[in-house]
Amino acid sequence: MATDNLLAELLYRGVSRRDFLKFCSASAAVLGLSSSYVPQIAHALETKKKPILVWIECQSCTGDTEALLRATKPTVSELILDVLSLDYSETIMAAAGKQAEKSLADVLKNQKGKYFAAVEGSIPLAENGAYCCIAGRSSVDIVREVCGSAIATFAMGTCAAFGGIPKAHPNPTGAVGVRDAVPEATVINLAGCPVNAENITASIVYYLTFGVLPAVDALGRPLFAFGKRIHDNCERRSHFDAGQYVRQWGDEGHRLGWCLYYMGCKGPEAYQNCPTVKYNEQTSWPVQSGHGCIACAAPNFWDEMTPFCRRLPQPFGITVETTADKVGLAVTSATVGGILVHTVARLLRRKKKPKEESKPQPKTEWKGPQWHE
Ligand code: SF4
User: In this structure, which topology does domain 228-336 adopt according to CATH?
Assistant: First the structure.
């Protein structure tokens, strides 16, 4: 059935009104909105036209497409994505060759400024973009044209957002994220390895409901998904606070679900809604399954967070029983203390200065280079 109305399409696909409203409630929860917004979301989805989406795949493992497609049973979220007008996607569209490229050309010609773009994978800039070409054009050329004329671009996963693994040292292809490749484009960075399908759906629902894109942090990631630290919502947090840590894979603490800090968990430095939204139809997430967070939604995570099993540095004097909040307080106190000491010392030096200047300066002897251990 060809229709440009979301609700009509959902009803045609056998989604009941009850399931539809459940989906609206779930979307409000992911977005951090109260249940009073559910009628507004439902009304928007019932009445709005299907948005057009063009999906470009560059240097990636296709993990983000897989994250969307590898569900065990169809969900309303998937249907919402199904009923987007996905006019172009190299990986999943039925068309091929010239016919496929014509679909893209038609969108660019007839829907300029009216469609969304999704980019999966990083964009190589070295050798004029020769490391990733589609239909005889470099991906950087395509992305500049497609993202430059879109309402907004969703950078799907960390490779598209920040360059990801292809950008890791020594970055032979000169890989970058969408923002660096197309600075003038409006980009929402849905980082993660892979992207969380719930966050894509929620971003689209937000736009359809409020007519604007969700607020983002300094890294261009939507605040509803990346505004909170993993450590603060982790189900193992009580064990961290109690000083109960896994010390070896498979030890008693591991079997009892204790904190993975000493096994390299990067949760104290990572921001994402994994503990609350989870993956695979909200079945689980890495920490729940027994492995520490690797901060996969952070820029340069491959270079800066590896080895993944090495624990984060622990500030001097902080014991394992100390909570992260106390660590923050201790670091702040130390910083404030340091500033105070420095300021007082500087004032005292200033006071002393005239006397010292009047004194003859002792001659110093050159004793060769001084090395400090
Ligand atoms: Fe959870 Fe990791 Fe924080 Fe432990 S260190 S509470 S496992 S996020």
Answer: Cytochrome-c3 Hydrogenase; Chain A, domain 2 (4.10.480)
